[in-house]
Amino acid sequence: MDTHQLTPTEAVAAARTLASAARANRPTTWRYETRELSSVGLYTHRWGATAWCLGPPDEPAALAVVSPAKRPRPGWGRYLNRILIVTHPHARGTGCARALDDAMIRYYLDCGYTRLKTTSGTRAGWAVHTRRGWPAWALNKHRQLVHDAPLSADLARPGVPPTAAALGATRPMTESEQHAALDDPTGPYARD
Ligand SMILES: CC(C)(COP(=O)(O)OP(=O)(O)OC[C@H]1O[C@@H](n2cnc3c(N)ncnc32)[C@H](O)[C@@H]1OP(=O)(O)O)[C@@H](O)C(=O)NCCC(=O)NCCS
């Protein structure tokens, strides 16, 4: 399947298509999904973020929104902030999120970006990030896991990345610390 960079108007239409699929199919995370997808207009029209989709824009298999930082972080280079990724409920588990991330990473590496940061909004999102080897460094104020990783293995470097340091991290979280956050019955992952 092809990937496409979308205009803000196309992004909002793609988000509406995925939100109605979430409402129709009711995966456990459907409330999270519809809420996030309803913000795509804000992210793209107002914040200047960029949306990408896998498959035809009017029938997306997956949609992602990223915000490429304008200025490099001293010593760490230019960051790509992955704000959102959603796969159509019927296409889940078939590699769509991986394929869309791969295509975006290739594109932004070519543009000189070096690192990616993102947040796990759901358990499935955390699984995607963990399978890619993107370490979680800390919890944000919403108690979501925050990941920060090089865009490719050859760009890895020692030390604590700046956003992780700002959250008080001195090392990546261990697997058991991450599971404790995921299994916290009062935390954001309790619903899924
Ligand atoms: C999270 C989501 C985007 C994953 O999309 P997907 O297209 O099904 O993911 P993929 O098939 O590309 O899977 C990528 C990897 O993550 C793993 N993975 C994906 N979903 C998983 C799940 N629910 N449980 C465990 N592992 C999972 C896959 O096994 C795969 O691993 P591999 O590459 O080593 O084989 C999708 O479930 C979704 O849209 N969920 C609702 C919105 C959401 O949670 N977004 C993420 C917020 S951070």
User: What is the CATH level 1 assignment?
Assistant: Alpha Beta
What's the arrangement of strands in the largest beta sheet? 1-2-3-4-5-7-6
Number of helices: 7
Overall geometry comes to globular
Query: What structural class should be given to the helix and strand makeup?
Result: alpha+beta
Distance between the first and last residues' Cα:
29 Å
Tally the structural domains: 1
Q: Could you describe the 3D structure shown?
A:
It is a single chain. With 192 residues, the protein is α+β, with helices and mostly antiparallel strands. It has one domain (3-183): Gcn5-related N-acetyltransferase (GNAT) (Aminopeptidase). Helix content is 38%, strand content 23%. It is built from 7 helices and 7 strands; from the N terminus they run E-H-H-H-E-E-E-H-E-H-E-E-H-H. It has helices at residues 8-25, 30-38, 40-46, 96-110, 123-131, 162-166, 175-183, and strands at 3-6, 50-54, 62-68, 78-87, 113-120, 136-139, 145-150. It has a 7-stranded mixed sheet, sandwiched between helices. A hairpin with a 7-residue loop joins strand 2 (50-54) and strand 3 (62-68). The chain starts with a strand and ends in a 9-residue tail after the last helix. The model has no long low-confidence stretch (mean pLDDT 97). The protein binds coenzyme A. The site of coenzyme A has 21 residues, from strand 4, helix 4 and helix 5.
